[in-house]
Amino acid sequence: MTVAGGAGQRWAVGLWAALTALCVCASGIALVLALSLVAPRGPLEQVTVSACETRHAGRNDYVQCEGLLTDGTHVSLRHDGHPGEQVEAVKTPWGSYIVPWTGVTAWTAALAAPAALLLAAVACTTALRKAVRRTRHRATVSLR
Questions:
Q1: CB-CB neighbours of 77 under 10 Å
Q2: Is the N or the C terminus of the chain less surrounded, counting Cβ atoms within 10 Å?
């Protein structure tokens, strides 16, 4: 019975370790994506919106606009705008253009997901530590 219990405890330790790593990685990715929306790096460029259309993505609709940079380059960006409008956009690290979010609400909304994932990582770490202690305790008890 000790062997089966020990294998189950090792399985739990491995599972909690994997979940902790997954939550930490997901939190990092969510943070990078959030910061690209609220604090993009790079110069702001003027875009003159030339056409917009509503696109469907499952249950979520969004507006995709085409526009021209001041140098005449055609760009595509998600923006609830209308033709002729001038917006400031910035190029993301992956090559598309976005209109940066501004304000406290934008920062709060952008950082909510990374914070929740980091909180989940802390909870997984706590469960991992308890599982490791149980495994060590069972190992010392079975040695006696």
A1: 22
A2: C
